[in-house]
Amino acid sequence: MRVLSLLLIVIFASCGQADPDTQLQFLGGYWEIEKVKLASGEEKEFSINTQIDFIEVTGDSGVRKKVRPRFDGTYAVTKSAEKFNISVEKDKKLQLHYSTPYDNWEETVLEAKDSSLVVLNTNGNTYFYKRYKPISINQ
Questions:
Q1: What is the pTM of this model?
Q2: What is the DSSP string of 45-91?
Q3: Which of 57, 75, 114, 115 could be joined to 62 by an S-S link, Cβ 3.0–4.6 Å?
């Protein structure tokens, strides 16, 4: 009976983990931050964002840029750009390894779907994003 219980736990735990290859296909694009859950448990919500993240993935590397949406549907690109390398760790989690002249850090992709992205940084802060929907003003 104990063996059966243990087997069921392992099966359910493995079913809950997302496939890194599947996550990777959803990583690229425009992302708007919804909230941050700090390691302390405190949550910060973002109702209005003047900047969004643009993530571009090429093979096993990528870049994250801050962009400002414009009313005409275009984007103003800021000077902020962070390059990263992608790896899959032993625990089958997708890792983003950032390196800038000022710092190095990692993020673990907890969830990457068509409409949502959740990442955990090395400080224990969890970032929740939603896919950005452009502003459309008809003339």
A1: 0.81
A2: E-S--S-EEEEEEETTEEEEEEEEE-TTS-EEEEEEEEEEEEEE-TT
A3: 57
